[in-house]
Amino acid sequence: xxxxxxxxxxxxxxxxxxxxxxxxxxxxxxxxxxxxxxxxxxxxxxxxxxxxxxxxxxxxxxxxxxxxxxxxxxxxxxxxxxxxxxxxxxxxxxxxxxxxxxxxxxxxxxxxxxxxxxxxxxxxxxxxxxxxxxxxxxxxxxxxxxxxxxxxxxxxxxxxxxxxxxxxxxxxxxxxxxxxxxxxxxxxxxxxxxxxxxxxxxxxxxxxxxxxxxxxxxxxxxxxxxxxxxxxxxxxxxxxxxxxxxxxxxxxxxxxxxxxxxxxxxxxxxxxxxxxxxxxxxxxxxxxxxxxxxxxxx
Amino acid sequence: xxxxxxxxxxxxxxxxxxxxxxxxxxxxxxxxxxxxxxxxxxxxxxxxxxxxxxxxxxxxxxxxxxxxxxxxxxxxxxxxxxxxxxxxxxxxxxxxxxxxxxxxxxxxxxxxxxxxxxxxxxxxxxxxxxxxxxxxxxxxxxxxxxxxxxxxxxxxxxxxxxxxxxxxxxxxxxxxxxxxxxxxxxxxxxxxxxxxxxxxxxxxxxxxxxxxxxxxxxxxxxxxxxxxxxxxxxxxxxxxxxxxxxxxxxxxxxxxxxxxxxxxxxxxxxxxxxxxxxxxxxxxxxxxxxxxxxxxxx
Amino acid sequence: xxxxxxxxxxxxxxxxxxxxxxxxxxxxxxxxxxxxxxxxxxxxxxxxxxxxxxxxxxxxxxxxxxxxxxxxxxxxxxxxxxxxxxxxxxxxxxxxxxxxxxxxxxxxxxxxxxxxxxxxxxxxxxxxxxxxxxxxxxxxxxxxxxxxxxxxxxxxxxxxxxxxxxxxxxxxxxxxxxxxxxxxxxxxxxxxxxxxxxxxxxxxxxxxxxxxxxxxxxxxxxxxxxxxxxxxxxxxxxxxxxxxxxxxxxxxxxxxxxxxxxxxxxxxxxxxxxxxxxxxxxxxxxxxxxxxxxxxxx
Lengths: 298, 298, 298
Known about the structure:
By secondary structure, chain A is an alpha/beta fold. Helices cover 47% and strands 16% of the residues of chain A.
């Protein structure tokens, strides 16, 4: 991987201060041996970076091998953000130096396809933004439930000149059909809970006050079922519904290739100048702001 | 197939009395040479057992070979039940001794895949429970319409430690996407008419008072069309949408394997003690009751 | 291709007068180098005939090769009709003599699959009838938005004894699942904007007064994005969602074969006698009228 000029990083040291890198960003709670919760807790934005990868990797490995776990719920402890985009302030080498995973795919797509195949039911409980990696993790989960008022899903990448890298081109058309998938990916806009349900982006959107109770009841119910019946049934659904790894593989390569293009770098720089990676307007309304980047470039 | 201990059958003779086995359970009516109705009429629960298989088989064979039939509607004469789960009181050998069908698949999946491919339009008109086999027959039909108030669809099997056997892992993700299919199959809960429509489990749910008129008008309309145009168009849709037999085949094997597991037998025994296979609360609210089985087993 | 008796063409010269053949039926407007509009303007019905093919072909070729275009919107200038069925008054040889396209498919399906793969976002903005070819062009576009009050989508062909020829058997099940696709194709009825949204036939239906603003804002937004990111992302979605050409190819052959059948000719003749190809009741309510053809034939 050649080095990339990254014009949005003039004062690297200052920038890094806003994103503490090495703390534990993912909390794992065992509600019971059969029912686990994984909570993203990386304030202020739940940005996902290279340092998050081994933390998520440890969770995935446990889900694959633990004899008791039947269901895992992914949620967030950060107000306004379920899990958001990749960390564009981290050194690229920190990402590209992470070894490929057991599937042979690069680290992030490897973990997501393994989550999809794990003999455990995964449920994304989405409150706040699920943008970029956050959307991709939700799509790799078995089911998705969203807060009607507070969930925002998006694949924002094309708006910044990027190709998304974590599987959404393979997964979205299978969930919602080609037309709506292309709107999500090429429109690159924020999608609220109700539209997400109408499009099949999530199983259901629920009133925010009901989301936690609904997901907990479903997870508790599934945790009371037989692990072998769950795993054998899911395996047959996988055969009918999962994209092959060969279909997933090109996405991360296309993401990295797009990141190197000067046109993309110019867009990300403009987004950084507006406040990308900082709490506030740009992160809260990323769909709107990527729609403003092109004017000076046309 | 080795013999299975079936701890829920202590008093076999008594149990059989509640399920008369050899009566005609399926009525075939020719509204016209082109428009047939198949009515499930096996009170009190429209349970589907080994003795139902040849009766349904005769219908499927006629649909494949009759020169005039263009459309068939499946409905029920039993209040509260469209068609429900397999008969767990019948001797297992009565099921496993039925020879494989022309496709090489075991008898039930053979009939369902042949229904899907028949050069005739099949419409499930769902009022009451379509549980297990009932859901699978509806999914193998070309279209499904449901009573908004009175239809309940479910794949309850995982809740009892079973893997469903009649095709739903192959068919549901193609209808509603992986996430909703996994919720139906791994949540194993009752799904009402409106949610069934939102999920794409049925084409539409209609007010109960409008269901019969709607389905009859659609069937009458299709019966007025040209049989060859119907058959040729359906054949091209089949190529784009049907799972291969190789994808269907493992489901019935997985169902039988799951039936033999002691953990599954314990769950079915508990369900029998609660009143499974008898008119009443358990059969009416099967989704709720399979959610109660795990507590003593955890 | 053998000659076909065409009993609905007794007075060929008179009939042709109602459908002027050689005028420009498609207008191409460059709102900007990146944002194009293609407007069907072939009053009174926006019928699509052999003479339309090279006009649409020129547009497709430009979309494939132009270095600047990122998004194209298809709309209509004809009240009540987005784009409707094929011209059954044209000589069949005018259609069959058009050479196959670069994909090796016959002219119309060739253009539609190339539109699907073009490195440009295509959006159908549907007001009025999108029947037959109109529906097929919309389905080959990347996204579809419909007027809630004024859009009518339909694949009417089976109602006249025809097999649709431009891809809908391959495309509809992937968008809306097999059950709803079979209802659209074998019911052959008119589908309004709201049902089209519920079925996934269109991305969304919008109040008629909002449709133009919504589509224009989305197209303008996409036109501000990076062409390479759009094209690379779309290419990966194509791999996950497009039918192969081998799956599209048999549809046009089946359409031509069905057109030659005497039973089909009798239906089209009856439809012509009712006013097919003329402004008025039959063209406005084609779904109803194909439902009336069978009575005398049964």
